[in-house]
Amino acid sequence: MRLFNKVAVIGTGLIGGSMALAIRKKGLAGEVVGVSRHKETLALAKKIGAIDKGSRELSIIRGADLVIFAAPVKTILSLADKARGFIPKEAIVTDVGSTKKQIAAKLEKIFPNYAGGHPLAGSEKRSIANINAEMFKDSLCILTPREKTSPGALRKIKRLWNALGAKVYMMSPGRHDEILSFVSHLPHAVAFSLAGSVPRKYMKFSASGLKDTTRVALSDPRLWTDIFLSNKRNMLKSIKAFEDNLSKIRSAIEKNDEGGLLEILLKEKKKRETLK
Amino acid sequence: MRLFNKVAVIGTGLIGGSMALAIRKKGLAGEVVGVSRHKETLALAKKIGAIDKGSRELSIIRGADLVIFAAPVKTILSLADKARGFIPKEAIVTDVGSTKKQIAAKLEKIFPNYAGGHPLAGSEKRSIANINAEMFKDSLCILTPREKTSPGALRKIKRLWNALGAKVYMMSPGRHDEILSFVSHLPHAVAFSLAGSVPRKYMKFSASGLKDTTRVALSDPRLWTDIFLSNKRNMLKSIKAFEDNLSKIRSAIEKNDEGGLLEILLKEKKKRETLK
User: Fold this and answer.
1) CATH of B4-171, one of 3.40.190.150, 3.30.70.360, 3.40.50.720, 3.40.50.2300
2) What pTM was estimated for this model as a whole?
3) Which chain B residue is nearest to residue A245, measuring alpha carbons?
4) Sheet holding B140-144, edge to edge
5) Cβ–Cβ < 8 Å for A21, A49
6) What's the gap in Å between the CA of A115 and the closest CA on chain B?
7) Which residues of B touch A261 (CB under 8 A)?
8) Per-residue model confidence as pLDDT tens digits over B128-163
9) Do A196 and B169 touch (CB under 8 A)?
10) B236 vs chain A: nearest CA distance in angstroms?
11) How many CA atoms lie less than 13 Å away from A274 in the CB half-sphere?
C-alpha cells in the first residue's frame, strides 16, 4: 500500500533508520532517501536496504511528499531552518523528537502541513547497525497535533504509523511532554544518578538489580542533555515528585518505622504491577 | 562429592530451595531436609526433588551437620533462638540473609561453628516454584567471617559454595552491608520510589526504560522493609549519595547548564559501562 511517492528521512539513526527500512519493506513509498552527517551511516543504511539513496546534503530531500525529521531535539530545531528551502509547502512534515513543545512551536510556523510524532520505541543502542523493520510493531506512537494542524496531514501520518504496526494516540505537545517526563525522562535521570552513586570498587558485587535499574544510563548523554533541557519545567516537576517519594522511604528508615515503610513499599509495588 | 551427611535448609523459598535442589543434584549431602511454614511449599519442594523430607517443625533438623538459615533477616534472628535446641555445637551453621551485621552478631554467639554468607543471586520471583539448581553457577557469594569464626566451618562453607558454582569473596559483615547498600539496597529503594512517582494514568505510555528501571519494585515489600531497616546506617548513606547526584542533575536543568549537565551524564554513563 503506497502512501507516499518520496519519503525523506533526515537522520538515519536507530529510529529514522528503522522507519526507513520498514517503509521500504512494506512498500509504503516509491522511494526513500536519507540524510546523515556520516558517510558510513549512509553506506550502511543503503546496504541494509533502509534507503534507496543517501546524502550528507539536504538537497537530496527535494521533491519528497513526506519529510521525517529523526534527530535529537536541538538538531531538529536547527535542521528545520536549513531544510525549509527544499520542502514545498504542500509536503507533509513530521518528526520523531523526544520532546514536542519546542519542536511543534517552531515547525508548525515553517511547514503548513506539519504534525509531530513520538514513537515510544527504541533502545539505548542508537546506531544504524541496530535498526529493525519490526521496531514499531505493537508499539505506541503519540501524535501531537494542535488546533491549527492540517487534518489531511495528520490523517496521512496516522496511516503511516498504523502501517508500521503502531497504535496511535493523539494529544497536545504540552501533554506529551508532561507524560513523557514521568514515564521516560525521569527514569533516565534516576538511572544516570544511580550509576553515578555506586563507588567504582563496589561495582563487581552488583547483581541483576543494579544492572536493570541503570541500563538506560548507557544511553547517549548528548541526546539526554537535550531532552532534559528541552523539557525543563516538566523535568523539575517529575524529579520533585520522585524526591518526595524517596524521602518518605528515607524518613521511615530513619525513624525505624516498620509499619510505615511496609505500607509505602506495598503501595509502590502495586503501582508497578500495573505496568504490563 | 559428599560434603555433609545431613543438610537442613530452614526456609525453602527461592534461595533455600535452589540450594537444596543443587545440593541433592550434585550429591553433596547424604540427605537434605527442609523447613517451611507452608505445607504446600514443602510438598512442592519434595516433588521437584529439592528435599528428601520436609516439615513445618524445626525438630526435623536434628542430626544435621550443616544447617542453612534461608529466610528474611528478621525471621532468621527469631528462628535462631527456636532452632538452637536442635543444633549440636559441632554442627556447621550458615545463613543467606541479605544483610549480615545483625545476623552475625547474634548467630555467632549461639553457634560456635557459624559463618554467614550471601549469594548475590536470585530474582524478584521468590517462591519455590521458581527454584533452579543452576542459580549459583558463575555467581558471586560473599562469606562474612569474623576473627573468631571457626576456620574449619568457614572452609567447609566455602567448599559448598564452590561446588554450587559460585565464586566466593570473604569480607567482614560490616563491609558486606556497606557494599550491598549501594549495589543492591539503594537500587531497590530507588525503583520503589520511581514506580510510586508515575501517575497511574500515565503508566500505559511507558516503554522499556521505565519497565527495566522499576523491575525490582516487584520484589516482596516485607523482605525489603526488613533489609532496609536492618541496614539503616548504610542505607541512609547510600540514599544521601544518590540524592546528591540527582540534585546535581536537577540543578543543571534549573540553570540551563548544558555543558555541566552533559559532563555529569557522560561521567555517569562511563561508570555504568564498568558494569559487566
Assistant:
1) 3.40.50.720
2) 0.92
3) B193
4) B116-119, B140-144, B167-170
5) yes
6) 19
7) 225, 228-229
8) 778 889 999 999 999 999 888 999 999 999 999 999
9) no
10) 7
11) 16
